[in-house]
Amino acid sequence: MSYAIGQLGWSTLINIIGLHQVYFYLPPAPKPGQDCFPDLIEKMAFWGLSTIGVVAAVGRLWDAFTDPIIANSSDRFSSRFGRRIPFLFLGGVPSAVFCWLIFVPPHNYISSTNLVWMTGCMLLFYLFLTVYVTPFFALIPELGHTPEERLNLSTYISVTYALGIIVASTEPMIANVFKSNFVFDTDISVQTLVSRQYALGILCVFATICMYFPVFSIHEKTYCEAEASSVPFREAIFLTFKNKNFLYFALSDLCYFLALTILTTGISYYVTVLLELEREFVTQLLTVMLLVSFAFYPVVNWVAKKIGKKKTVLFGFYVFLVLFLSIYFIGKDELPLPPYIQGYLIVAVAAIPIAILGILPNAILADIAELDSLKTGSKREGLFYAGRTFMQKLGQTLAVLVFSTVILLGFDRETKKNVSPTVTGILPPSVSEPKSESEKNLKGETKISMESTICKVEEVEAGGELVVRLTGPLASAFCLLAIFLFGKYKEDETLEEIAKIRGN
Description:
Number of strands: 2
Family: Belongs to the sodium:galactoside symporter (TC 2.A.2) family.
Oligomer: single chain
Transmembrane segments: 7-26, 46-65, 85-103, 115-141, 153-178, 198-216, 246-269, 281-300, 312-331, 343-369, 390-411, 466-486
GO biological process, one term: carbohydrate transport
Low-confidence stretches: 413-463
Distance between the termini: 29 Å
Pfam families: MFS_2
Keywords: Membrane, Transmembrane, Transmembrane helix
CATH class of the largest domain: Mainly Alpha
């Protein structure tokens, strides 16, 4: 249980980033009567790519270097506290601190300093989160000594990962409490900004506490079957990715997380732009989805034992495929259902694959890692989970880059039609009318910071609405690729070889 609570902690952090970062730095324009939110960075970077997408990509490239290094260091590490727990101790607090600082830029207006700040904090956040998460996952095959025990562990941490999504999604509710009961600034946009920062700070403190449960309660030397690896770093990397089952599994994971992250990144847009509901409704939807998914957990365990983990996962992929395609149609006037009901139906269906893909992939990877260890004599669980984590992060990065760029380009096309762009949160008075470049530079950031901001209310969103809809079919294309790749994983052969070598 303590191990699973640790997952609740880091799940809260990573879902704070997944659910809120793009919406925080790329806010849609408010509809009449809604509060506005300050623009903090330039939206477009270069070649039509969004700034937030480019920054996310840089963070994941950084992960490309740190993941295998941390994993190999953990595999080869030895101490009286074990080889995983010391890394968890080191990574917990810094990852939570830098997660919060990502949302606390130095200025409350558009500034290059904000961009540098966000990028630096993001790199440090991912570094320390990797220090925690990669050794954390490597404990699964060490704490779980049989396939059944590993499946149970995967189920427990799947539950707490889902709870982390719910916890992270409560930010709008907590922020509203702060905004209603405290006055941080007379400017309503800054009031909203600071309220959100306090809310995110509370969530990060909660995450920190959870992350240290396994540190102080798991005695690794007592519970874990493990010994330090003696394989050199480069050879360990080569042996890990030489495993074909792992390679297909990891590439499938990349495509799946690319598709899933498009959905999770876009959920605030789906609710506010397509369904035209308040952003607080996101919390209700995610809570319903995850509570319903919990009800399916015993069913998933039972079905996986009856027909196998691979067939169950493929079924989950196909359900997701249909779900992604349905995003294109939600909120249309032709649908007879109210927006609230549409939202609840979507998350109710999503609960099934969420339950399946939340439990089984970790158990499958534990089987792959165990067979590799039995055949090679080298315990490299850390590198296997680092490889999966890297593929997940790469998929999430590409999703943020693709989603934010598609959204931004779609709304930019609306701007060229002289229509208020849906994705411009606020405009300062000093740039609300066309001016020469020299005049803009002369006014600069100082004038922006000294004047109150004016909300640019959305007038027409036809083009912007279309690109939001198209993100669903786009995600479905990556889901199809995930199905193809995962189909090449040979589950029966893997389990038979494990049983044969162990003499069962």
